[in-house]
Amino acid sequence: MTRLADAADALIDRVGGFTAWLTFVMVLLISGNTLARYFFNASTVWLQELEWHLLAVVALWGVSYMQLRGSQVRVDLFYQHYSARTKLWIEFLTALLVMLPFSLFICWLGWRFAAYSWSLSEISPDPGGLAWRWAVKSLVVSGYALLAVVALSTLVRTGALLAGRGAAMQSNGAHHGR
User: Fold this and answer.
1) d(C-alpha 157, C-alpha 112), whole Å
2) Could you give the percent of the chain with pLDDT greater than 70?
3) How high is the pLDDT of residue 140?
4) Which of 12, 9, 7 is nearest to 175 (CA)?
5) What is the DSSP string of the chain?
6) Quick one: pLDDT at residue 70?
7) Are 111 and 105 in contact (CB under 8 A)?
8) What distance in Å separates the CA atoms of residue 153 and residue 161, rounded to the nearest whole number?
9) Looking at residue 33, what DSSP letter applies?
10) Mean pLDDT of 127-136
11) Could you tell me which of 20, 47, 104, 114 has the fewest CB atoms within 10 Å of its CB?
């Protein structure tokens, strides 16, 4: 099971690297659009829409990487005082009872949302806009599916640590310091 968790983590790491580069591309695109608009009085709808399409990818795919690496905002008022075992239980139960069911529920709802958009071949309503509105709506499903993968990886890893089989995992750095 830990090999599957390793493969899942490797996938999420690649997604995180991709979203990091996409963030860089988005910054260049926004800067270029701003400069073109203010210095050359030129602006295109499709480039502006591309900005928020890229933002959707970064937000919906990047959250899985953020969760995997433990960089999310956490309210540490109480958490910082808990023992390592209590923290593991909190991670395990949160992944099992909140993150996984919520992610799967959003995937289920989002699938119908994206499928309907795809069946219409939905495009931008703006003249000169992008033709793949359905693709952006599909990001909801893929983003939450990636978050479900992180939840499963978290369940495997924290479950192994709670069962006492995780000493090797911790020494290999597989638990990511959470």
Assistant:
1) 32
2) 90
3) 95
4) 9
5) -HHHHHHHHHHHHHHHHHHHHHHHHHHHHHHHHHHHHHHS----HHHHHHHHHHHHHHHHHHHHHHHHTT-S---HHHHTTS-HHHHHHHHHHHIIIIIHHHHHHHHHHHHHHHHHHHHTT---SSTT--S-HHHHHHHHHHHHHHHHHHHHHHHHHHHHHHTT--HHHHHTTTTTT-
6) 80
7) no
8) 12
9) H
10) 88
11) 20
| Residue 38 contacts residue 121 (beta carbons within 8 Å) | no
Overall average pLDDT of the 148-174 stretch? 78
Tell whether the model's pLDDT for residue 168 goes beyond 70. Answer: no
Alpha-carbon span 60 to 167, nearest angstrom: 33
pLDDT tens per residue, range 98-129: 999 999 999 999 999 999 999 998 988 888 88
Q: Quote the pLDDT of residue 176.
A: 52
**Is residue 62 pLDDT above 50, yes or no?**
yes
Does pTM top 0.90 for this prediction? no
The total of other beta-carbon atoms located within 10 Å of residue 18's CB is: 15
Instruction: Note whether 67 and 13 are within 8 A (CB).
Output: no
Of the candidates 115, 118, 119, 140, which has an alpha carbon nearest to the alpha carbon of residue 61? 140
Q: How far apart are CA 162 and CA 96, in angstroms?
A: 14
- Phi, psi of 109, deg, nearest 5: -65, -45
